[in-house]
């Protein structure tokens, strides 16, 4: 587990811009340190998004790099925005640090590729499903903690309606739609909610059917978050802890895995038909239980 908070998307963007500007001027970090008096180690940490630069430090760097006024204003705004709180900050005392960071990344992403091996993807869950699955996976949570987690999960889903809306491509193993989380009634409503969500132009859903056999998603779930003008990030939520992978080789590997999963999954149209059939089966089970 990382010992320090993961850098925000805006801080990563600022760091990348400062590194690019210094390189374009043909300056080493030693050159910048000598010209500005900024410690070389501090410059390294700024360019790696390890720390937020102070306003006067940023101004000194931009002056040395002879940055045009419009870009100076944009980067200064980026520094200011990097410390702004999002809606999720109200829950930071109750959420793991890595989860809060993930929500921020998700909020900044232009598209999300989400593969789930056992769960309905979080952005497509109903409240009743979330209320059943969260304590099922984390039985040590108190009722109040479950309520807050459910509230956070529901608020996250607003990004599907924002302008511009997040582009979500979700794939789940067929096991996720057959596991009766919360009982037949909850699952029937959840599956019908998936059918409704698939009508959104920014939502695509596929299922990897049982008859595919072994496939590369079996080791576990993962998310590929893609940003406008910034490198993608892979997020893995596991029993061993939450991981963020940013190295190009790791991102390339998980992007390749996702492409493979898209190829072995059934089409969105076939997925819709399968989900409706399974929802009807839950309806029959619900009626049988009521007798």
Automatic annotation (TrEMBL):
Name the Pfam families on file.
DUF5753, HTH_31
Indicate what this protein is called per its UniProt record: Helix-turn-helix transcriptional regulator
InterPro entries referenced in this protein's UniProt entry, alphabetically: Cro/C1-type_HTH, DUF5753, Lambda_DNA-bd_dom_sf
In this chain the HTH cro/C1-type domain maps to 18-72
What CDD domains does its record include?
Answer: HTH_XRE (cd00093)
Its source organism is: Actinoallomurus spadix
């Amino acid at each position: 587990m990382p010992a320090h908070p993961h850098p925000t998307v805006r801080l990563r963007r600022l760091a990348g811009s400062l590194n690019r500007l210094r390189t374009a001027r043909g300056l080493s970090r030693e050159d910048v340190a000598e010209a500005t008096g900024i410690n070389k180690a501090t410059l390294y940490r700024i360019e790696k998004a390890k720390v937020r630069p102070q306003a006067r430090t940023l101004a000194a760097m931009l002056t040395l790099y002879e940055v045009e006024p419009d870009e100076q204003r944009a980067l200064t705004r980026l520094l200011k925005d990097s410390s702004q709180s999002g809606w999720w900050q109200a829950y930071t005392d109750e959420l793991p640090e890595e989860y809060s960071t993930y929500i921020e990344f998700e909020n900044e992403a232009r598209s999300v590729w989400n593969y789930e091996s056992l769960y309905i993807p979080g952005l497509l869950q109903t409240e009743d499903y979330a209320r059943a699955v969260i304590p099922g996976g984390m039985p040590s949570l108190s009722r109040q903690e479950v309520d807050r987690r459910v509230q956070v999960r529901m608020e996250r889903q607003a990004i599907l309606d924002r302008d511009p809306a997040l582009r979500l491509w979700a794939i789940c193993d067929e096991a996720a739609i057959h596991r009766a989380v919360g009982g037949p009634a909850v699952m029937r409503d959840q599956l019908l909610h998936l059918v409704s969500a698939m009508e959104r132009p920014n939502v695509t859903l596929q299922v990897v059917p049982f008859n595919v056999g072994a496939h590369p998603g079996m080791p576990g779930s993962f998310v590929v978050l893609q940003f406008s003008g910034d490198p993608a990030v892979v997020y893995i939520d596991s029993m061993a802890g939450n991981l963020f992978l940013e190295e190009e080789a790791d991102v390339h590997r998980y992007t390749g895995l996702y492409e493979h999963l898209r190829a072995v999954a059934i089409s969105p149209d076939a997925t819709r038909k399968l989900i409706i059939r399974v929802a009807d089966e839950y309806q029959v089970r619900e009626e049988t239980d009521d007798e």
